[in-house]
């Protein structure tokens, strides 16, 4: 898991709890989108989007 995503989830208990519940492929979808980002800005946007999706219950 990317370190930035780990840090973001550590600061958001609701998103972290929902990140732990999906299947391996569900987690991988979030992780790969962040890993594939080329610029730090894109990574930050994708991390924010992933944590917001998880917080609202979207997997």
The gist of it:
The chain has 59 residues and is an all-alpha fold. 75% of the residues lie in helices and 0% in strands.
Q: What attributes characterize this protein structure?
A:
about 60 residues; mainly alpha; globular
Gross morphology: globular
- Provide the low-confidence segments as ranges: none
> Which series of helices and strands comes N to C?
HHHH
Biggest β-sheet, characterized? none
Average pLDDT works out at 85
Q: What is the number of helices?
A: 4
Query: Proportion of β residues?
Result: under 5%
Number of domains: 1
Helix content: over 70%
Structural class: mainly alpha
Beginning-to-end CA distance, first to last residue: 16 Å
Rounded to the nearest angstrom, the radius of gyration is 10 Å
Topology of helices and strands:
Blueprint: H1 3-10, H2 13-20, H3 24-35, H4 40-55
Helix pairs in contact: 1-4, 2-4, 3-4
């Amino acid at each position: 898991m990317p370190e930035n995503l780990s840090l973001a989830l550590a600061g958001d208990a609701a998103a972290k709890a929902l990140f732990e519940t999906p299947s391996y492929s569900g987690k991988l979808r979030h992780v790969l989108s962040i890993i594939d980002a080329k610029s730090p800005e894109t990574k930050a946007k994708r991390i924010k989007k992933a944590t917001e999706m998880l917080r609202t219950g979207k997997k």
